[in-house]
Amino acid sequence: MGGGSGEGGVRLFRTQTGCVVERDGVYFRVDGANWDSLLASEDLAGALGELIAVLTPGLELEAAEILAPISRQEVWAAGVTYYRSRGARMEESKDAGGGSFYDRVYSAERPELFFKSTASRTVGTGGVVRIRADSKWNVPEPELTLVVSPGGRISGYTIGNDMSSRDIEGENPLYLPQAKVYSGSCALGPGILVGEEALDRAAEIAIEIERAGSVVFSGRVALTELKREPRVLVEYLFRDNVFPEGCFLMTGTGIVPDSSFTLASGDWIRISIEGIGVLENLVG
Ligand code: DO4
Ligand code: MG
Question: Residue 266 — left, alpha, or beta (φ > 0 → left; ψ -120 to 50 → alpha)?
Answer without folding.
Answer: left
